[in-house]
Amino acid sequence: MRLVVIAGPPSAGKTAVVRQTIRALQDRYRIAYLKIDVVRAFEDEELAAEFGIPARKVYSGDLCPDHAGVMVMRDAIAWAGEEGADLLLVESAGLCLRCSPYTTQGLGVAVLSAISGTNTPLKMAAMLTLADIAVVTRIDLVSQAEKEVFRERIREVNPRLDIVETNALQGTGMRYLLRAIEDCPAITDPDAIVLRGAPPLGVCTICIGKTEIGWQHHFGVIRRLEGADYLYRGD
User: pLDDT by residue (tens digit) across 42-95?
Assistant: First the structure.
């Protein structure tokens, strides 16, 4: 099974990118989808109804949504495997822009909106530095000059990052992302998956540097994939 983690600011077009990916690959792959959000999310219901794929969500509540994603990632991989999936798409809420939810044995995709301002990539250094691909959406709403400046800002952060420019609503330019997903190696050992980089300091065990995925390896405010309807848990 391939693992793809899709992160980026709110309203950058992450779900539109996910939707185009599913639409293009559903005939060749059994796809499962997990949405990480803070309080409310509907993307899993919409994608399940539209494409008939296994989909679910988890709310982070008082925990950073990217940290919550790390907590439930091991459970999510097991769930997707039980569903017979050979491609798991995980969409993060990505609120603080400081966290980088990408893992080993997976493909890291950062989604940015071209209309968010030319300095936006500079504010997302951690998220872009550890990603494999940057997908720039809404390119139909900016000029060629603005696109070039935006691209150079991304290059300032990560000169080696592959950049895909797309109107995600119509799927233009998505073939480069689809090719990268298909070329991504499958997971070989779920128990060996770790974060690509250390998260910022904070109040949970992920914040202080533990990189193991799965709530079983952590304590404090934790999140499980099952029974995650509550918004706060002080274990």
Answer: 999 999 999 999 999 999 887 778 888 888 999 999 999 999 999 999 998 877
Tokens at residue 185, please? 């190696």
Tokens representing 198 are 């250390």
- What is the three-class DSSP state of 76? helix
pLDDT at 172: 81
Distance (Å, whole) CA 87 – CA 79: 12
In single-letter form, the type of residue at position 232 comes to: Y
Q: What are phi and psi of 67, to 5 degrees?
A: -65, -40
> The domain 2-192: what is its CATH number?
3.40.50.300
Q: How many CA atoms lie within 13 A of 191 on its CB side?
A: 0
CA–CA gap between residue 144 and residue 157 (Å, rounded): 21
Tell me how far apart the alpha carbons of residues 40 and 141 are, in angstroms, rounded to a whole number.
28
pTM: 0.84
DSSP strand pairing (87-91 vs 31-37):
parallel
Q: In what order do the strands lie in the sheet with 31-37?
A: 55-59, 31-37, 87-91, 2-7, 107-113, 133-137, 162-165
Residue type, position 5, single letter: V
Would you kindly state where each structural domain of the chain is located, as residue ranges? 2-192
Q: Helix crossing, 43-51 with 14-25: angle to 10°?
A: 20
d(CA 22, CA 195): 25
